[in-house]
Write a structure and sequence with these properties.
Helix content: 25-40%
CATH topology of the largest domain: Rossmann fold
Distance between the termini: 114 Å
Low-confidence stretches: 14-66, 146-154, 159-170, 422-426
CATH superfamily of the largest domain: Peptidase S8/S53 domain
CATH class of the largest domain: Alpha Beta
Mean pLDDT: 82
Strand order of the largest sheet: 7-9-11-8-14-16-17-18
Structural class: alpha/beta
Radius of gyration: 25 Å
Largest sheet: 8 strands, mixed
Number of strands: 20
């Protein structure tokens, strides 16, 4: 009787639960938009998982979809050449095939099937064709502060400088994966540059960012401070202007550019760009590293608390941050365990696309400084392995933060190794 009297004044349990649900905040527009996007790409199961607070592994969602793609209905597959013929047997419709012979891989653009999501497809291919990677054709952006006056042009022709001179011994060369170049600029007119286009879309090619990066390496010494004076730049043009007017490059273009640079026997590749993690891009970089190539990338300009950006955050890549003339860290630079070196990247004088010069800041301007130092180290240490060379550069770097390594400056300001004397042959 006493229990009944006490319970008489309480609301029914079902009613109390309903009132608790009514106090929950409604999902915002961003969450609903992400759910629709996930459902479009992966089916209703992914949308249900997202509603329950789980991350969509295939799209790497955490409340919102991380990483844009150019074609929603297209996946890219990076498969060993000996397994390439098995792909159609899994129900994939191949839209484009590129044989990356130097890396021993085949790059495929396939129509995304409706009967499975990308995580399921990746598992199936891994079992039937070992070494195969599949992912979306993610978008990557160049990164630098105050990237004004971006010019565009027609697709770059595959061309080299004239005359093309061979350097004695190991060629002093750096490959850059960037926008197209404004080759008519006075600072680049006499530079030794080999350029090739890797954009499959009929779109305008931006030239501002690549022109700035190339001028850091081989610009006219009378107006700039070239870090690779007398060297050669292999420029892979991968960026186009998307429908929103932004510079964009795809993971497929990055992988194809990597294969070309490897075929040209470039030992140091600079990627002053950033974007989401991508299994195909990671596999392409692993293949480069296996061939003795050192990949350098800008860590990004999303601030000290920014999420890691790729490819700099991959373990096989040397991430580079930016410092000013007083060795202070660039305030917008990303931080983390993937930072390997620091290099000048604040108010650096570069060539302006279209003519003239300007000062530019960002980790993407610091990265070519580090790439040039590594290329010169290769030239001065003929026969040295990439691992031994990088280890020596880490030991000789100027420590700017906590002792040895720290997530702000990495191992410190990268310093050029002394050039070994050249002994003339008799």
């Amino acid at each position: 009787m006493e229990r009944r009297r006490r319970d008489r004044g309480r609301p029914p349990r079902r009613r109390r639960e309903r009132s608790r649900r009514s106090r929950r905040p409604a999902r915002g527009r961003r969450a609903r938009r992400c759910e629709r996007r996930c459902a479009d790409r992966h089916g209703s199961r992914r949308r249900t998982a997202l509603r329950r607070g789980r991350a969509c592994r295939a799209l790497r969602c955490r409340h919102r979809c991380a990483g844009r793609t150019v074609e929603r209905d297209v996946w890219i597959i990076f498969v060993p050449a000996e397994h390439a013929e098995r792909i159609p047997g899994w129900g994939f419709t191949i839209r484009e095939r590129q044989d990356l012979a130097t890396l021993g891989r085949v790059l495929l653009r396939v129509a995304a099937p409706e009967d499975r999501d990308i995580a399921q497809a990746a598992l199936e291919l891994a079992l039937d064709a070992p070494g195969t990677e599949i992912d979306f054709n993610h978008v990557y952006r160049p990164g630098a502060d105050d990237d004004e006056n971006t010019l565009t042009g027609a697709p770059a022709a595959d061309r080299g400088s004239a005359p093309r001179r061979e350097l004695p011994g190991s060629p002093l060369a750096v490959g850059i994966v960037d926008t197209a170049l404004f080759r008519q600029h006075d600072a680049l007119r006499s530079a030794d540059i080999v350029e090739r286009d890797f954009v499959p879309f009929a779109a305008e090619r931006p030239t501002a960012h690549g022109t700035a990066v190339a001028s850091v390496l081989v610009g006219d010494a009378a107006k700039l401070e070239p870090q690779l004076r007398g060297g050669r730049v292999y420029a892979a043009s991968v960026f186009f202007v998307d429908a929103e007017g932004n510079d964009a490059a795809t993971a497929a273009s990055l992988a194809a550019a990597a294969e070309w640079l490897s075929a040209e026997r470039v030992r140091v590749i600079n990627m002053s760009l950033a974007g989401p993690p991508n299994r195909v891009l990671e596999a392409a970089i692993e293949a480069l590293v296996e061939r003795g190539v050192v990949v350098v990338a800008a860590v990004g300009n999303n601030g000290p608390n920014g999420d890691p950006l790729y490819p700099a955050a991959y373990a096989q890549v040397l991430g580079v941050t930016a410092i000013d003339s007083a060795n202070r860290i660039y305030r917008y630079a990303n931080r983390g365990p993937h930072v390997a070196f620091a290099a000048p990247g604040v108010d650096v004088r570069v060539a302006r696309s279209g003519g003239g010069y300007r000062e530019l800041s960002g980790t993407s301007i610091a990265a070519p400084h580090a790439a040039a130092a590594i290329a010169r180290a290769f030239a001065s240490r003929a026969g040295a392995s990439p691992a031994a060379l990088v280890a020596e550069l880490k030991r000789t770097a100027l420590d700017l933060g906590a002792k040895d390594f720290d997530p702000v400056f990495g191992f410190g300001l990268i310093a050029p190794l002394p050039v070994a004397p050249v002994i003339a042959s008799r």
